[in-house]
UniProtKB/TrEMBL annotation, chain A:
GO terms for biological process: intracellular protein transport; Wnt protein secretion; Wnt signaling pathway. It comes from the Eukaryota. It comes from Hemibagrus wyckioides. Keywords: Developmental protein, Golgi apparatus, Membrane, Transmembrane, Transmembrane helix, Wnt signaling pathway. This is Wnt ligand secretion mediator. The chain crosses the membrane at residues 234-254, 266-285, 305-324, 336-353, 378-402, 429-453, 473-494. It is found in: Golgi apparatus membrane. PANTHER family: INTEGRAL MEMBRANE PROTEIN GPR177, PROTEIN WNTLESS HOMOLOG. Belongs to the wntless family. Residues 48-227 form the Wntless GOLD domain.
Automatic annotation (TrEMBL), chain B:
It holds the Pfam family wnt. Ligand for members of the frizzled family of seven transmembrane receptors. It comes from Hemibagrus wyckioides. Keywords: Developmental protein, Disulfide bond, Extracellular matrix, Glycoprotein, Lipoprotein, Secreted, Signal, Wnt signaling pathway. Belongs to the Wnt family. Gene3D superfamilies: 3.30.2460.20. GO terms for cellular component: extracellular space. This is Protein Wnt. GO terms for molecular function: cytokine activity; frizzled binding.
Amino acid sequence: MAGAIIENMSTKKLVIVGIVLLLFQAFAFMVGGLIAPSPTTAVHYLATKCVDNQKGHLQGRKWFMPWGPNQCDKIRDFDEAMAKRIEANNIVFSVHIPLPNKEMSPWFQFMLVILQFDIAFKLYNQIEDKAMVTIDVSLAYRDDTVSEWTEMAHSLEQRKLSCNFTTAKIIENEGRYYECDLLPFMEVGTVSHKYYLVNIRLPVNERKKVNVGIGEIKDIRLVGIHQNGGFTKVWFAMKTFLTPSILIIMIWYWRRITMMTRPPVLLEKVIFALGISMTFINIPVEWFSIGFDWTWMLLFGDIRQGIFYAMLLSFWIIFCGEHLMDQTERNRFSMYWKQVGPIVFGSLCLFIFDMCERGVQLTNPFYSIWASDVGTELAMAFIIVAGICACLYFLFLCFMVFQVFRNISGKRTSLPAMTKARRLHYEGLIFRFKFLMLVTLACAAMTVIFFIISQVNEGHWHWGDYTVQINSAFFTGIYGMWNLYVFALMFLYAPSHKRYGDEQSSGDQGGNSGEDIQLTTTITHADGPTEVYRMMGKESQE
Amino acid sequence: MSSGCLFRSLLMLFLALLSANASNWLYLAKLSSVGSISDEETCEKLRGLIQRQVQICKRNVEVMDACQYQFRNRRWNCSTLDSMPVFGKVVTQGTREAAFVYALSAASVAYAVTRACSSGELEKCGCDRNVHGVSPQGFQWSGCSDNIAYGVAFSQSFVDARERGKGQSSSRALMNLHNNEAGRKAILNHMRIDCKCHGVSGSCEVKTCWKAMPPFRKVGNVIKEKFDGATEVEQRKVGTTRVLMPRNSQFKPHTDEDLVYLDPSPDFCEHDPRTPGMLGTVGRFCNKTSKAIDGCELMCCGRGFHTQEVEVVDRCSCKFHWCCYVKCKQCRKMVEMHTCR
């Protein structure tokens, strides 16, 4: 692919393309920062303590409402329960999602809920080491305020209590709360109903050591996190706009390649694959989540992102490899198994981990791999292996980039002595590589910088009357950036129809035959019977 | 509809309490016939309150407990008396103790309202348009602001209303307003920030953070610390506005979070029948070994103390459930008790 558009483009045109892309980039940031609200909202819920007066088990589950009509018999705290001789097994913690006068909406995309216990320190009733709390939890939904609740899920879950008491454990400090870690509680992949009801019980069974030694629980608090409807709308709009743009450039790119007389080389195929994976992410299938109850959407989104990341990482490796300018013949995917292997393996690990977590959550929204010891170890193993793979990959990549630069500086010295065709070829290679290197580094740096800003900052900046949502700007901006990256890549690295050095090459001879051989090895695969080959043919004819 | 009623009745309650001569929980405290409130039945005894209002009342008793907990070792142990005016000179004068009481009270209202919001007992809360920080597009577009913003705004408009009614000029009003705000700051500046990562495979690519209220005990501790370091101030005129400045110009000016007071506190040593609330320290328990204010030396104001051996029946080797079940043996032991003369 000696004649990529980028080499044959005049500087002026290149600058224009760059400016247009930058404008789009700024637009992407502004859409997120100015139009969209913050990406997610966290809502606090304090569980209401209901009393289950039911004697024996009636048919069907009884649902306990914390407020509104048909609300349950409530107690304010457990001293009251003690006075009324209510047992622990008859207490139901009830949370209605959302709060009064609100409705959930499919635009919220997902809902995940965090569980927190307020446990008071009592000198003689402390939390035991490695205490597990067993929760009997059920989730129901309904779509209007009057109909019956329909059960969505019911499960008996275990969660590890990791609490510590920061002050001295003396009688003076009784009543202070432990500081407990947040516990994962529930994850639902679509929010297709308006009202949800969570009922939690903490059954006690002394014989089986269930819920014994968990301290004196004062309250249960939940935090519900969902994506903001406004952000979802902006996000969908962006995807809907980006899909055709990438699709069109992809078709144009592939047409250009097929128009050539030679079969496509590896690098061209990889760029095309990158385009496909980008389109795969872009296609706004999420629109369906507004109408259908597809709980697997969250998992599907993960998979799509994973494929794109893996593709992008592979592309970088192969791009470096194809620009190595040594005598080795590559152009085969199998040549890169050493570098691509870690990517595939790492992605696979993360995929399995994701299936174990979000996959199981399709059937049981309360499941968490972190809840059990074995699960935690397994999850950690997967993540560590993936991390090692990532490190390995970056070592390879850095080494390759270093090699390319070493070869470039080696070539630089011998450039003036070469024939014009050869020189132009190498200069093209060097320029292409350096350009991509620069753009990639800029993109990566932007991603990292924005990531850090969005992590450190409060999430929004006030700027005069405007509030700039940094987190939203991060998401739309970075998403737009990688789209533009792929777009630019396909546009600039598509084969050019212009041919360089055709006329001049005949007059410019004098390189030794050794160099000729070297030239052929590096480019025959790239060009096939096009330019340089033909040039060589001319040379030999003369 | 019922929540609407509740909201209105809550407002009514607060208005009623504020129209009384003392800040709200002091009014409640008045109902107790002993020097301190130990049981919550006090609220049940209130006539004319509906169930929900009783609950709000009980929350205020929790505040009372918080006050008494913080002052358990001091000469003034947050004591109140049955007679009017509620706190006598202790709180009607601009003392340190009054500063504490106002700060704690303002904080407690913010705290209680925020809690009521989270449990769905109040309707508007974070989505109330009158509270700053709410986007006009509503819950579906961008969610609501934190309930704590609402709780604090509520506390500002209702607890501060009485002082504002008096006019800004009185130095006592300025002191109360400052201390109310300091109480609310004790919550706001000690919010815990929790985060949850939920990106691809649970990575921190997407992270949501939120602020959680500290436990009320901690709020009490913070205000108590501010009580210990409170600044004595006096009113001065700067330009056209009246501000509170430290009486001793050597001291650095107080911040928004600090408590301020106008009058030095009495020593609380002797019982003074003319000033209710001044119970004195006669009969109080003290710690023989401590050199601090809870020690017998200081607590008893040098009057000396009685020592007697008392048999205490204590609970021991108990079995607990997380709620509502305790089975204990009774253990007896002899303890030395010191009480002030």
